[in-house]
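Researcher: Go.
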Amino acid sequence: MATQTMRRASRVIWLSVAMLGLTGVANAQFGTGTPADAEPLENGPAPVRDLSGVWTRIAPEGRFRSGSTWTPDPPQLTAWGEERFATARNSNAGGFALAETNDPVLTRCYPPGVPRVYFHPYPFEVVYTDTQMIMLYEYDHTIRRIFTDGREHPEDPVALWLGHSIGRWEDDQTFVVTTIGIDERTWMDRSGYQHSDQLEVTEVFRRVDRLNLEIDITLEDPIALAEPWVAETLYYRRAPAHWELSEISCSGDYLDFSQFESFLEEGQE
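Model: Structure:
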């Protein structure tokens, strides 16, 4: 029994060290990519109806920034939302060790979903086709399609990790995206607030100038939230022109997931 306990403890330490390694990556200026040309971009007016490029999150002085939730105060929950939140054992605020968490991203390598994907400290890239704006997230090779061809949301969408997204330009610098049909296994943030199949997420992208982007996010769910959860603004800076995304895989790049799975199985004994 003592040997088993020591083995479990050593695995917790190993996992904690692995996760601390992410902190260094999070503090890198532009994620994990290697630029072909490190010359800084010069600022200037925002281009017309264009969000293309690689974007990395920044923390302007005096602005709220959290790596785990959207607002300084908790959201207003319904009784259903309170009940679901009470079951969450998140490891991001230090309340639960990795051995105890039930965070689906950490325990099962599930995709984080929308909008939680923004909490992963890696850049994303925006590219366009004639009918879609595509967001390529460095985290876990995630690809998100935002349809711009004028279609509506389906009445009964198939549940997807990133949901069904449609977008439109409100003016030359403001792009609005609504997303529904988000898989209920995702959390709304890293703290453990959960949602129903009625969750609708609205993102407002504002291209401030050539280098800066702001994103406002509103979460609405009549089953989980007593009122809309309006996130504090997210701030992004455009990376150098030739910056290339790297690859961060949940299943292998920074965690030995086979050891993590075996540890979880032992914990269920």
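Model: The domain at 2-37+47-267 is CATH 2.40.128.20 (Lipocalin).
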